[in-house]
Write the structure tokens for this entry.
Amino acid sequence: MRLLAARSPLQEVELKLSEPTSYDVLIDIEACGVCRTDLHVLDAELAGLHYPITPGHEVVGIVSACGPLVERFGIGDRVGVPWLAFTCGVCDYCRRGEENLCPQARFTGYTRDGGYAQQMLADARYCLPLPLERPAGELAPLLCAGLIGYRAYSKAVEVEAGGGNAGAGANLGIYGFGAAAHLIAQVARHEGRRVFAFTREGDEAGQRFARSLGAVWAGASSMAPPEPLDAVLIFAPVGALIPAALTAVRPGGRVVCAGIHMSDVPTFPYRLLWGERTLCSVANLTRADGEAFLAIAARLALKATIERFELDEANRALDRLRRGELTGAAVLEVAAGRLRACKRDT
Ligand SMILES: [Zn+2]
Ligand SMILES: [Zn+2]
């Protein structure tokens, strides 16, 4: 399913992929998660977009061919293809272990074709090993919602190291209770934190969903939480949530913006930031983040709540995400039978 131009529905396009060269693997895709970032790609809200592009950066699939330099994976291995698709390896950021900030980085489903497809090519050095035992659809949301959500969460609770108290028993606020939040809430609860969930006005289903995952409080993002928060994650792409979150967080607390794009931030009085509150963003992921988070997801047996769609229903899945109608994460599943039939034809 290709995006041929900005702000247009995805179209079914037949493409013949080349044989994998150098570090690339050819992957028979089983499932691909639908992420809010895909809407920003559709809406041309990210710099440097070129069309046509195949979106999708939460890809689960089986390696079906390997380039000559691939060492880590073999045919038949299940891999995950996350957002980070390539880094230069030699710039200051890469050398400092901040490859997520590499200016030469490429990204799956944004600057390199992604997983809204039956097959894709990916650089094996940036793929993550996945277990074959679990359903592909349930693994897909871990690859961005979970992974980048966890990077944001780690930054939020890092306050501990600075002498603050965002540790066990601490109050963690989450604005936007979708795919990322529903996974991170499970981690936070496991670590003994108390989750306060903020949803769109009137989204009672979302608030019930948050409570079912252990949130101690759930309400509209316009509401004040019943207690001051130690740290806040903002997953919703709404700039107006920044002053709201700074109001909700205690002095010394931290607000972390996890999305790649947000609407403009309204001006706000300096007193909201005063009191050693910090405000920061999280960009992309490193390969180390991927390995660390997948280990945690396996150890805690994180459960993704998913809504399944056929690959050719990608536009419907994106519409439901845009309207805030999903509970948990949308996942496109590629029927294995259809893939085999297609391969026979070619
Ligand atoms: Zn670099
Ligand atoms: Zn994503």
